[in-house]
Design a protein that fits this description.
By secondary structure, this protein is mainly alpha-helical. It contains 7 helices and no strands.
Length: 200
Amino acid sequence: MSVSISQRLSEKSFPLLPWLLVGIILEAVIFGSCYAMFEGVGEAFRHAARYSGRLSLFVYLFTFSYFALTYHNTASGVMDNVRKLVTIFCVMHFIHFGFLAMNVYLNQIPLVPYKLAGGGLGYLMILLYPFILTRIKRKALHNIYFFYLGIVMILTYLARIKGEFSGVTPGPIHYFGMGSVIVAFVVYGYLMFGRKKQEG
């Protein structure tokens, strides 16, 4: 059954521009809704950063799931679809970064330099990966991208749970976000590595 799913996914080509437009529109709706619901530009950007971050998590998990399900498929269309998906994620997450940067600036949120290093590397990977993806011949090297970004997300949610981020009250959504990435690591890791081990 898993093989047939992989084959079906590889046979379909994702249209980049329509879905990219949908992603940009969703980001605009998030900001527009926050601007209308909360008083002050600072609060609008604070909540826009929060909700666009959750949208980015969903796009990341969707992209990771496609990559995992087609991991052992060598069809040429597979990595082209991955490239389109990570391009959409790149654009949307940098919109989220814009909201986040404005939130930090307008609300004068203190930043800890050493904590920014890991996230900064993550943003650099998000930016460069769509451009260098086709040059990476060994599919196993792509795992670095997905697992590193997942670790950054886990640590980000953990910081919020521990109350280390100004203006954020720990809640169930943070446990859900962290848990969903951990579950993805286990499930997608099995699809990529466990199945190959069984087949061997």
